[in-house]
Amino acid sequence: MTTTDRPAAPPVRTHKQDRTWVGKSIRRVEDPKFLRGRGGYIGDMTVTGMLYAAVLRSPHAHARITGIDIAEALASPGVHDVITGARAAELCDPLPDFGPDPTKHTWRCLAVDKVRYVGEGVAVVVAESRYLAEDALALIDVEYEPLPALVDPERALADSATLVHDALGSNCAYERTFDFGDVEKDFAEADVIVTDRLRWRRSGGQPLETVGAVADFDHATGRLTVHTNSLSFTSYLFMVAGTMKIAANKLDVRPVPAGGSFGSKLFATKPAVIAGMCSREVGRPVQYLEDRVDNISNCDHHGSDRVYDVRLALMRDGTLRGIDIDTIEDYGAYIQFGVGHHGNALAQVVGPYAMTSVRYRVRAALTNKNQQGAYRGFGSEVNNWMLEQIVDKAARELGVDPVDIRRRNFIREFPHFIPTGNVYDSGDYDGVLDKALELSNYKHWRAEQAKAREEGRCIGIGLITAQERSVFSATEFWFWFDEPAAPVTSMPESVTLKVDATGAITATLYSCAFWGNSPETMVAQLVAEEFDCDPHDVSIVYQGSGNGLPATGPGGSRTTVMLAGAVEGATAKIKAKALRAAAHLLEADPDDLEWADGGFQVKGVPEQRKTLAEIAVMLHLFKHSFPDDMESGLEDSTVFDHPYTTMPSADRKDLGVFYPFMGHACHVPVVEVDVETGAVSFLAYAAVHDCGTLVNPRSLAGHIVGGTAQGIGTALFEEFVYDEEDGQLLTSSYLDYLIPTAMEVPELAIGHHETPSPYTLHGIKGGGEGGRMMAPAAINVAVNDALAHLGVRVTELPITPDRLRAAIRAAGAAREAR
Amino acid sequence: MKPPPFEYAAPTSVAEALELLAVHAQGEARVLAGGQSLVPLMNFRLAQPGHLVDLRRIEELTRIRAEGDTLVLGAMVRQSHAEHAPEVALLAPLLAEALGYVAHPPIRNSGTVGGSLAHADPAAELPAVALALGAELVVAGPQGTRTVPAADFFVGAFSTALEPGEILTEVRIPRRGGGHAFVEFTRTHGTFAIVGVASVIEVDGGGVTRASIALSGVDAVPVRAAAAERTLTGTVPDDATVRAAVDATVAELSPSADVHGSTETRIDIARATLRRGIELALTRAQDRR
Question: Which of B45, B121, B259 best probes binding to A when mutated, by most A CB atoms within 10 angstroms?
Fold first, then answer.
């Protein structure tokens, strides 16, 4: 596809300059209820007659189930039912699955004839309390016939003797190589080709409340009501009806605050199905809420687990030409999102750099681990890390300054189509870099680094510049296949605005159950901007799927942009009606009226006006004062569809536009490495982000801090470790799965830069994932910068003391350093 | 993560507690002394006691007092209480310093000094401190009271000289002069240490007259760094002496590998941490003179 046959971009918007509320750091409207413990999580819910479910987890990584004896458990006090995997398979169809071939890597709520990872559910007990349910779990006798465990993805691909899914006939669920641009030419003409091998090990989002559901099946109506903290309830959860073998219009999924997701609850259908299945069997409401070990070992999904072999083609002056990426992703035992991770990577695969070609080979390995999927960044953060490591390596090999090599290659003209076909709508990478160099006190730290080195101390500065894509289109889930399963996907978001008889405004949201972000604050500010009211006076409510408008839910940093579009649309409809009503009341021509300060007034005659409240009360109570075709009330909705997404080309040499609103950031951590122990500590940390026009700088700063803290976890601490021999999960609690505390996270210096998007309301871009998309890359670069003079370069995350000491010992560096 | 059923009693005297332990001797009775380790183990169902005898209402076990130069801590003294008590600061500053490394403040508000010692986690701070300071542990049992030196108290990982039916009631810590230091290496703040080093070093005219150093995390029980103590004693230690003292100790260690570190890395970390502990104790000893 050439530039000329690309579909037209949406019209370029002009943005209002004199904003009142958008751009203001107001206090989050969500906070009071959560700070007072009135958030209403799954664990807080009680429904009359509710029973509790607990799941028996597999102790084996890979084993045939040759027998299950549940008699004793069934007789245990307070137990209402015990459902084995085999019975569950009769009661329910497989779980919703977007994997390459669900019939061959079938995923169910409980394992049927074999278990495929430690923690996989084997049976579920329903009892009067969670205590009694767990007592009964201990009485279930399962006979296993252990099979060899596959833990290493490369070995899994090579090994066809042991299969995770026999029906698939291979442990490779997907393989394809894509060429974008003229890869051969760029590599042939390059002065230098830098190669790298990198390993990103799996971690995952750690929510305060785990995934859970309270399900109530009503046998009288055949209706299933599920309260759950899944994030996708309005978009995909109709598929749960399919799994439950009920009509979709008999399923109502009601949102519950997520208590943190970070991607981990993006889909999360298993607890809803388990609770729903149990409720239908016992005829009572049932709560299934994962405990922490369930959540670590048997959750919806862990985060990325990737091996890279990369080649970078560049010129001697540091000009980047092309990149050849060969990656294996360890998906664990199932693959519910397919290789959507890599769609995320391909949205910004060349980073902020003007490269002309990309080769991308991806292989999806199946192993005996919990499956993996979304985690803040959804695979694009892994690509950022890979790209910044190899660019840094190239700079070092060429003797080019790390700041200079980045600046030399920055994209400066927008909109810019990268080789994969995705568009970067706008950006100012020099502006962000300049701000970051100043904010981080970069020169000062380079001087400190030199001084420290003379004292034998190892200080490193990790400057990276990377992309922060926002507002996904689901084409990234299917452009992997030649036969598209769908035309271009719209991924809508809806808002209903109601102006009541007093002029107060209520906004109804159809997704976006609170998951740690600020959908209510965003909507309140956007509504306040449109109607000149105080955002704290806007009331926000949610609707379940049963009565809902189309919506998608948070994911891929889309919430604010999409809700803004929906608010804008609904506002226009309401103002159009209010204008007509005002014109009628003022006996003026609508064209002579203008919106000002919360009402309509005659242009040039501000004392002739009707406030929104005055208009609203008339429309609610005195309909007969208006023309016949006007109905009572002042309420309207907008279903806002993705504003800019296009089809991939048939040959998949151009994937189309699927992640157009491109943010950018520069992170500069300064670390000190204790060479003797392998400990890494922070001396300073600066982060400058550009997410277009800011709605609430304070809440964005919160995202940056939280995301960076998670990135620090990924870089230094967090890892789901499976034993290489028997596949046991060695980090099954927070004793061993280490999360950084406030003591490990440095004070961040945060800077904002604003380059508006030409295509969205106010020029907003998404910014919910940025911190974690940058920090792992930046910290790895910093550690390598600290140790380069010792000949140590770390290529594997997390950088634990054990890995760092092993690298230092291997380099024979420790002794020289002292 | 819910415990199996158990019975619970909270007696108000040691005699009553001993009686309850005796009555339920066949029913897997366990003493509860803060619950910061036992309760999580019960929730994981790794410990399944039939009866819990909670010592929290026994007033006499919650006191801190000085008997001349000996610090006496009731077994149920909360860790945060001891951490900030003037008697501890005066008589056993090493203990006060070590307590600051025990998990996090909310855990120290519930966790007790005696509970940590009796639990005998190989990575815990307080057993190493007791060993370095030559503490005596007072044990009450059906046959009366006996006193066990710290060196004999820790038998194995999570295993002590306490017999079934006995209760640790008191810890007696003799005052030590010189410089003290507690240092440890953890991966994140408040998590289990890879190695901890408790040191007290006395100097006279610059020379080391007495060194007591104990390590946690390197073996099933806390160990004395006897080789380092011998190497340092009688010398005016310079960098080379300290290094020799550290090397002599580390040569005898073979910590078990786990998910946080290979044996090799654990030795590397022990080497650095032991050296830093000795250096800090020496500096403080010299400053105090």
Answer: B259
Rounded to two decimals, the pTM is 0.97
Name residues whose C-beta falls within 8 Å of residue A683's C-beta, 6 or more positions apart in sequence: A445, A448, A459, A670, A671, A672, A746
- Rounded to the nearest angstrom, the minimum Cα separation between A438 and chain B is 31
CATH class of the domain at A149-200+303-402:
alpha beta
- Whether B265 and A741 lie within 8 Å, measured CB to CB: no
What ipTM goes with this model?
0.96
CB atoms within 10 A of CB A94: 18
Instruction: Residue A726: count other Cβ atoms within 10 Å of its Cβ.
Output: 15
Q: What integer best gives the mean pLDDT of chain B?
A: 97
Least Cα distance to A413 among A425, A421, A422, A405 occurs for: A425
With respect to residue B203, please indicate whether it lies within any of the assigned structural domains: yes
Residues B47 and B71 reside in one and the same domain: no
Report CA B147 to chain centroid distance, whole Å: 16
Where among B116, B142, B174 does a domain terminate? Answer: B174
Residue A548 vs residues A43, A202, A559, B68: alpha-carbon distances, Å:
25, 36, 17, 76
Superfamily of domain A42-147+211-289: Aldehyde oxidase/xanthine dehydrogenase, a/b hammerhead (3.90.1170.50)
Residue A570 and residue A564 in contact, taking contact as beta carbons nearer than 8 Å: no
Q: Are B95 and B48 in the same domain? A: no
Element (H, E) at A394: helix A380-398
Q: Are residues B108 and B164 in the same domain?
A: yes
At residue A583, the 3 state secondary structure works out as helix
pLDDT for A2: 47
Find out whether B133 and B125 touch, Cβ atoms under 8 Å: no
CATH fold of A3-30+492-640: Aldehyde Oxidoreductase; domain 4 (3.30.365)
| Residue among B260, B262, B264, B271 with most chain A CBs within 10 A, to mutate | B260
Based on the domain organization, do B48 and B71 belong to the same domain?
no
Q: Say which residue the tokens 């990234």 belong to.
A: A476
Q: Which residue has the tokens 């750690």?
A: A206
More confident residue, A818 or A731: A731
The gap from C-alpha A328 to its chain's centroid, in whole angstroms, comes to 21
Same domain? For B237 and B271 the reply is yes
Size of interface A-B (CB pairs under 8 A): 78
Task: Give the number of domains in chain B.
Answer: 3
What sections of A598-733 are H helices per DSSP? 612-621, 697-712
Contact status, residue A72 vs residue A141, Cβ threshold 8 Å? yes
- Residue A165, φ and ψ in degrees, nearest 5: -125, 110
Does A810 lie at the interface with B, CB-CB under 8 angstroms?
A: no
Q: How many CB atoms lie within 10 A of CB B214?
A: 29
Domain of residue B234: give its range: 179-287
Cα separation, A453 vs A624, whole angstroms: 83
Shortest CA gap B160–chain A (Å): 23
For residues B166 and B247, state if they share a domain: no
Burial annotation A417-451 (CB, 10 A radius, 16+ → b, else e)? ebbbbbbbbbbbbebbbebbbebbbbeebeebbee
Q: Give mean pLDDT, residues A753-774.
A: 97
Alpha helix (H) ranges present in B24-141?
38-43, 79-84, 86-91, 93-99, 105-110, 113-119, 125-133
B268/B168 same-domain check: no
Percentage of the residues of chain A whose pLDDT score is greater than 70: 98
Domain layout of chain A by residue ranges: 3-30+492-640, 42-147+211-289, 149-200+303-402
**Does residue B244 form part of some domain?**
yes
Query: pLDDT tens across A311-336, in order?
Result: 999 999 999 999 999 999 999 999 99
Coarse DSSP helix, strand, coil percentages of chain B, rounded to the nearest 5 percent = 40, 25, 35
Phi then psi dihedrals of residue B273, to 5 deg: -70, -40
Please answer yes or no on whether B4 and A130 come within 8 Å at the CB atom. Answer: no
User: In this structure, what token pair is assigned to residue B69?
Assistant: 């130069």
